[in-house]
Design goal:
DNA-binding, mainly alpha, homodimer, 2 domains, Arc Repressor Mutant, subunit A, two-stranded antiparallel ribbon, elongated, about 55% helix
Chain lengths: ~140, ~140
DNA sequence: TAATTTCCGACAAATCCAGTCGGAATACTA
DNA sequence: TAGTATTCCGACTGGATTTGTCGGAAATTA
């Protein structure tokens, strides 16, 4: 499941990317990305901790991307905000944990199935970066114009 | 995300399938599938409503599969228990709903991305049936023996 | 009738989600 | 130095969802 938080994070990052290098204050970012301002604060804190944005306080301050869009993998981004991609922990590569009620994870058919699902998800997400999202939007805009 | 409920449902159905045609009482099913007995009741009710199991009351009663395992698609099963496969409603084929905060779903890059994810998930799940899960387990057993 | 079993709805505890709020710290400008 | 704009931080809250439990009614069979 994609939470609001991750959806907002994605929008915030693409907004920052489009805005260029100058720092963008949170209240403007909130308006442009359509994210509730006080919730955006929470999200920016996580993005900062994860190294995706850097922030500057005071007048002329604001937030900016800390990496180039093509270096922001969407899989990792969503992992940072929403946790593991796998539908169930025992199918996660990056955050494996056996089910407490599972006598033998090696033999678990559910785990095998869900591992296939998690790989399918990761295949999509880990092949794309923020840059792809930007191109998607601008391409759309071009067509409409 | 795969909830406990869906995980239990999957285990309950494979257990019923392995047990054959005779009805299996809930308390035995609970033990064999390792599902809390009173929660299993709730789950069986949903499976019955969705047409996957049929039940018989009274002495010699119990639950049995209402379809052949190869006719129980895992995608549909999980949809019946956990809801849409898509990570976000606006990316669902079977249960589409636009985000309330989205000015133009057609142009939404997040929706495009998540549609790819949902298709990847559905590709895995809609190609498999309960029979595949059965084979997975028995094959495993063979190897271990 | 007695035993067994499903069936049903209400309830409840725990966890997670989506956000808010108040204020402290920091930086810039005049 | 004062004032203003801004980030930064943690605590809090209300609601939804998950993961169950419980008590009893209805049905079936022996």
């Amino acid at each position: 499941m994609l939470t609001m938080k991750a959806k907002y994070a994605l929008r915030a990052l693409t907004t920052l990317a489009r805005h260029g290098h100058a720092p963008l204050p949170a209240h403007q970012l909130a308006a442009q990305a359509r994210v509730p301002e006080s919730f955006l604060e929470v999200i920016l804190a996580e993005l900062r901790r994860a190294g995706y944005v850097s922030s500057k306080r005071g007048l002329q301050g604001g937030h900016q991307l800390a990496k180039a869009p093509e270096q922001i993998g969407l899989g990792d981004l969503i992992r940072a905000i929403d946790g593991p991609l796998a539908p169930i922990r025992c199918a996660s590569l990056t955050a494996y944990r056996a089910c407490s009620d599972c006598p033998d994870p090696e033999a678990c058919a559910t785990r095998v199935l869900m591992t296939d699902v998690r790989n399918a998800i990761a295949d999509v997400l880990d092949r794309r970066t923020l840059r792809d999202q930007l191109l998607l939007e601008s391409h759309r805009g071009d067509l409409a114009a």
